[in-house]
Amino acid sequence: MKLAPQLVVSSLAVFVLSACSGDASQRRQAKDDFEYLNTPRMQEWSTIDGSQPQFYPNFQIPSGDFQGGIGAEVDIRPPQQVLELIPGARAEKSNGEVTLWLLREQELAKVWSTAQTMLRENSISIREESPNRIETGWVGWRSEDEDGEIGSRYEITKVEANNRYGFKISLIDWREGGRDKPVTYTNKERYNALMTNLVTARYDLDLRLEAERKAQELVKQIPITMGSDRSGLPVIIARTPYNVLWQRLPTLLPALGFALEERNQSQGTVKAKYASPDDEFWEEVGVKRLS
User: Fold this and answer.
1) What single DSSP character describes residue 57?
2) Of 148, 174, 223, 242, which is most buried with the most CB atoms under 10 A?
3) Cα 67 to Cα 16: distance, rounded to the nearest angstrom
4) How far apart are CA 270 and CA 260, in angstroms?
5) What is the pLDDT of residue 257?
6) CB 75 within 8 A of CB 188
7) Residue-wise pLDDT tens for the chain (291 aa)?
8) How far apart are the C-alpha atoms of 132 and 116, rounded to whole Å?
């Protein structure tokens, strides 16, 4: 089974902390050695006859059969965070899996469609697909803090609980250097979040493109009136949201004879030099010449 074409993950979806130098394993492991693994086993405390020992609970080590990695198996990289780019969505992590909860079923349908678009655009193959479940083929990842080429397969499902609508991503298979390996909790926690971020980033891109399209539509129908301020200086009143008109100014003002020199959006100021167009221009636009 061959790996799918390498997935080049956008900088928006992946955060890599590379302050420390060295190979990939050094970026995942603690700086010091693992001599603590050779620590002798603890022995039961022996008291002297007739003495009354006093024990303080402040440093008491809890007893139990705890599972987890030790030594080189401990991954010190900060956990991946799910980007909150879908309005109203809440991310929930459980056992390394990520579920995005949405308020309405219509919103889930839009996120599901976005996930399908993301898979298609990144050439991620699909093994099985139904209205409520997608099982992907192998996804190739390249990362500076991994020893080599890694691959993963995912199950994407729709879930519903307590009148909430969820979108769940689960890592189901894992490869390193072309060899199948067990899926660890660290793998699930990290690469489920990365895949979720690819979906949320694609959703955010759609939102921004839609907002830009609506802004362009609004620009075509901006009511404008002429007036003057208290000092008698001319005023042009555009009845439209500030951000819509601001995006239009760089093309509108030069068409009226203004040569832009400096702009400051936060202050709402534009510095420009003005050279009045000829009479033919004013007749064409249907307004009086600006003085």
Assistant:
1) G
2) 174
3) 27
4) 7
5) 83
6) no
7) 333 444 444 434 443 333 344 555 555 566 667 777 888 887 887 888 888 888 788 888 788 887 777 776 777 777 778 888 898 899 998 888 999 999 899 999 999 999 999 999 999 999 999 999 999 999 988 776 666 778 999 999 999 988 889 999 999 999 988 889 999 888 898 899 999 999 999 999 998 888 878 777 766 778 888 888 889 888 888 888 887 788 888 888 888 888 999 999 889 899 999 888 888 888 887 777 766
8) 12
H or E stretch covering 158: strand 150-161
- Any long-range contacts for 268-276 (C-beta under 8 Å, 24+ apart)? 268/242
pLDDT at position 80 is 79
| CA 62 to chain centroid | 38
Nearest to 102 by CA among 165, 163, 160, 158: 165
CA 141 to the chain's CA centroid: 17
The confidence score (pLDDT) of residue 169 equals 94
Q: What are the distances in angstroms from CA 49 to CA 42, 54, 55, 259, 266?
A: 21, 14, 17, 97, 79
Residue 177's nearest CA partner among 205, 137, 141, 124 is: 141
How does DSSP classify residue 35? G
With tokens 């192998």, the residue in question is 138
Q: Which amino acid is at 188?
A: K
Contact 24, 144 (CB under 8 A): yes
The pair of structure tokens assigned to 63 is 């007893």
CA 34 vs CA 23, 29, 37, 61, 101: distances in Å: 18, 10, 6, 20, 41
Tokens of 120: 């298609």
- C-alpha 86/C-alpha 103 separation (Å) is 11
Name 104's Cβ contacts closer than 8 Å, sequence gap at least 6. 165
Give the integer Cα–Cα distance in Å for 217 and 212. 9
**Contact status, residue 117 vs residue 124, Cβ threshold 8 Å:** no
